[in-house]
Amino acid sequence: MPMIFRRQFADKPAAAPQGSAPAEPEAAPSLPYYLNEPYVGIKNRVQLQLIAQQQERANSDPTHLDPVRLREDIRELFDQAVAESGLIVNRNQREQLLEQIVAEILGYGPIDAFLHDDTITEIMVNGPKQVYIERGGKLYETGVTFQDNEHVIRIIQRIIAPLGRRIDEASPMVDARLPDGSRVNAVIPPLAIDGPTINIRKFARIPFTVEDLISFGTVTPELMQFLDACVKGRLNIIISGGTGSGKTTLLNLISGFIPEGERIITIEDAAELQLRQKHVVRLEARPPNIEGKGQVTIRQLVINALRMRPDRIIVGEARGGEALDMLQAMNTGHDGSMTTVHSSSPRDTLRRVETMVLMAGMDLPLRAIREQLASAIDLIVHLQRMSDGVRRVVQVTEVLGMEGDTIVTQDIFVFRQTGVNNGRVMGKLTATGIRPRFTEKLSQAGFSLPPSLFASAGP
To answer: Quick one: which of 111, 186, 223, 361 has the fewest CB in 10 Å?
Structure first.
C-alpha cells in the first residue's frame, strides 16, 4: 500500500494565504475513546484469558493463524468472557473493548489505534508509562500506557519479526518499517534507561501532490517548476534539513519528475521511498545476524549499484562512508542522482559531506574531497520545521565550483520571514534575483526557464 507523502506535511488541512490573519491558535486536540477507556483493568483480565486460550488452540489447530478465522475466534471468546465476568456494557463499549483486544493480539497493542489515525504524524513510546503523539507539528501526551517493559518489547518484536531483524541485549537498537512503509526505531535497556522506546514516523494513506505541498506553504509554484526542470535536466541534488523537516517526503515527491524511460536504483537503511516509476530496483541494507556476520552496508550497496547499469542512483540518506561512493557515482556518468543529508544549512551540508567522505577511511587530501564535492553536486534544497510546526523549504542553493580551497555557492531562492502572527510564521520563499549558471545546461536538455522565475521580489 503506497503511503508516501503525507507523513510529515499533513500538519494542517491547508495553509492560510500569505499575509492573511490565521485562525485562532490550535487547542490541544480532544482525545478519542481509546485514550479514555474506563474498563482498562477488566480489558486486561479478559485479554490474558483470550491469549491463553489462543495458545492452547495453536497446539491443535493448524489454521489458527488465519487472520479472518482468528478474528472470529477472538470475538467468540470475548463474548463468552464478558458474559462470565458479569460486566455490563452497552454496544459501543463492547465494540471498543473488542477492538482493543484484537489490536493486542493481531495488531500493535495500545498504539494500534494511533496508527490508523491519519491526523497523527509521529508516535513516541518513552517506556511503558509514557506515550506521546505528534499532531499538527505539536507534541501531546496521550495517557496511554503499556503493562510493563516486557509488553513494549513484545510489540517491538511483532514489528521487526517479519523483517528478519532482531533486538536483544547484544543488539539493543533496531531500525525497521511497518507494512505501510512507516519508519520505526526502537531501543531497549540497557541503552534505554527508563524502559524500551519506540519511535514511529508515519506515512499517509494518500500520496502528496505538488498542489498539497503548495497549499501547506512548504513550497511555491515557482520552486516546483524549477525543481521539475532540475530533475528532468539530470542535475545532482542533495535535500538537507534537520530531523523531521520533511527531507524524505520532498525526495519522494520530486523523484516523481524522473522520466519513465530511466532505470532507477534506490538504496536505503530501511526501505521508505515509494517511487511511482515502473523501472525501479529497490535495495535495502542488512544488519549483522546473531553471530555478527552477514552485514551489508549502504556503502556496499552503492558500490554494487554501479554494476547494475543505473541511470540514476537515489540514496535515501547519506550518513557515512557511502558519501564518497555517491560522489563518485555522480562524477562518473550517473547524473540526476539524489540523496538526503542531515544538516542545519546548505553550507553545513557541504561540511557534513566532507566529514562523511573522511569516514570512508580513504586518506584523501581535503582539497581533493572539496573538488569532488564541487564537481558532483549541482543543487542543495534545504528544509526546516519552523516554530509553528510547518515544514518549509527555506533555501535553494547552487554549488558553483572552487575558488582556491573554498567551495563557492549562491542562493537561488530564500525564505524571507516577515513576522509571527498568533504563533504562525509569516513569510514567503522568494527568488534572490540570481539566475543559476546551470540554466544553460538545462536549456541544452530542452528545459528553458523564464527569466521571471528568478526575478527578485525586493528586500
So the answer is: 361
Q: How far is CA 399 from the centre of its chain?
A: 26
Q: What is the model's pLDDT at position 352?
A: 94
**What are the two backbone dihedrals, phi and then psi, of residue 42, each rounded to the nearest 5 degrees?**
-65, -40
Ranking 72-86, 260-274, 290-304, 431-445 by mean pLDDT, the lowest is 72-86
* Residue range 206-219, pLDDT digits in tens: 778 888 889 888 89
- pLDDT for 42 equals 58
List residues bridging with 409 in a β-sheet. Answer: 399
- DSSP at 379: E
Q: What angle, rounded to 10 degrees, do the helices at 322-330 and 346-358 form?
A: 110
| Residue of 261, 305, 303 whose CA lies nearest to 283 | 305
d(CA 107, CA 94): 18
Q: Strand (E) positions, 244-326?
A: 264-268, 280-284, 312-315
Best CA proximity match to 189, nearest among 150, 160, 147: 150
pLDDT digits (tens, 9 = 90+) for 142-170: 988 888 899 899 899 988 888 778 888 88
Q: What is the SS3 string spanning 135-182?
A: ECCEEEECCCCCCCHHHHHHHHHHHHHHHCCCCCCCCCEEEEECCCCC
> Where do the domains of the chain lie?
33-106, 210-454
DSSP assignments along 54-73, one per residue = HHHHHTT-TTTT-HHHHHHH
Sign of CA dihedral 97, 100, 104, 110: negative
* Segment (H or E) for 417: strand 406-421
Residue length of the chain: 459
Is the pLDDT confidence value at 308 over 90?
yes
Residues paired with residue 124 on neighbouring β-strands, in sequence order: 132, 199
Contact 311, 263 (CB under 8 A): yes
Report DSSP state, residue 119.
T
- Would you call 392 helix, strand, or coil by DSSP? strand
How far is residue 444's CA from residue 376's CA, in Å, rounded to a whole number? 19
C-alpha cell at 453: 522565475
- pLDDT in the model for residue 66: 64
CATH class in words for 210-454: alpha beta
228-238 average pLDDT score: 94
C-alpha pair distances (Å), 230 with each of 127, 208, 258: 45, 20, 10
Among 433, 271, 413, smallest CA distance to 346 is for 413
Between these two residues, 182 and 24, which has the higher pLDDT value?
182
Q: Is beta strand 338-342 parallel, antiparallel or unpaired with respect to 312-315?
A: parallel
